[in-house]
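Thread amino acids onto this structure.
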């Protein structure tokens, strides 16, 4: 749990960002009531990465060991997080649980922390990518409800006017896992491969041509990830219903083709991902999915 007055660690596990934006993000977090400790990675650069792999990994390891830090928020996603997975101290992360917030490329850390460190993490807005911009009250409320309220049962609400759709009806319960589609598929065949057995798989994506979504979903299907899951939540697919081909399938065409045959309860358009407003999802806790009623209910508290 984090609350105003606590110290947040700010780090950059993936792409580099403008240094001015880091300073703006620090002020934004302070204005929200937090003390801030900034790692080395937000102020460093190595090509398109925010520092060399060892620097970015060391930030994560040291912040989890730092007793003054109650939570950790990432600056942005982009690219680079999977490169540091072998350099992380998963035992130290397990022994020093903290709120950990991010999404997009940060998916690699969500899955690794959930599976290797038994840590609940938060698929939510990031300091530079989201919070320095005009952030809706909905986004802030969703984030702070997730990371600061001890509640065993809570329905995840979409922003007003955003309708959740049923892809395949039914209901199920399971631990929620997942994140960005590209990151999930890139984990297949590695020691950090996502495990969906008995779980509810969450997927979101941004700015990919329909045929690339088709290819990624096909890979997950062939890898057995849909068959292993008990249910599927499709989040925001920002700018993905497009094609460079004159004759194309639609986004829903490929979703229906790859996911419906698994006959698992599935919904579409839970507004979490590269969108504003944005729902924060605790990853690694048990949730109930009713695809017929189009609801997602947290069945465990995400914080203590």
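Threaded sequence (304 positions):
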């Amino acid at each position: 749990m984090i609350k105003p007055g606590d110290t947040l660690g700010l780090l950059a596990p993936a792409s580099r960002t403008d240094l001015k934006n880091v300073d703006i993000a620090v002020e934004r977090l302070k204005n929200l009531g937090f003390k801030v400790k900034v790692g080395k990675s937000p102020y460093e650069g190595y090509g398109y990465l925010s520092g060399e792999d060892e620097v970015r990994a060391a930030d994560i390891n040291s912040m989890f060991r730092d007793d003054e830090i109650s939570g950790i928020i990432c600056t942005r996603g982009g690219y680079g997080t999977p490169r540091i997975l072998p350099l992380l101290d998963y035992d130290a992360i397990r022994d020093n649980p903290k709120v950990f917030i991010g999404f997009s490329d940060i998916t690699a850390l969500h899955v690794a922390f959930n599976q290797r460190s038994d840590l609940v993490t938060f698929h939510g807005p990031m300091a530079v990518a989201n919070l320095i911009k005009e952030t809706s009250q909905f986004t802030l409320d969703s984030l702070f409800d997730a990371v600061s309220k001890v509640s065993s049962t809570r329905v995840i609400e979409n922003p007003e006017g955003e309708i959740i759709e049923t892809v395949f009806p039914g209901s199920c319960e399971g631990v929620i896992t997942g994140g960005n589609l590209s990151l999930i598929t890139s984990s297949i065949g590695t020691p950090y491969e996502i495990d969906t057995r008995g779980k509810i798989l969450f997927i979101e994506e941004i700015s990919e041509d329909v045929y690339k979504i088709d290819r990624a979903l096909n890979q997950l299907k062939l890898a057995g990830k849909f068959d292993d899951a008990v249910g599927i939540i499709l989040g925001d697919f920002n700018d993905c219903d497009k094609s460079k081909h004159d004759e194309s399938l639609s986004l829903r065409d490929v979703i229906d083709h790859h996911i419906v045959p698994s006959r698992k309860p599935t919904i579409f358009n839970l507004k979490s991902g590269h969108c504003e407003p944005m729902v924060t999802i605790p990853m690694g806790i048990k949730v109930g999915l009713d695809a017929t009623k189009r609801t997602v209910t947290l069945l465990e508290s995400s914080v203590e």
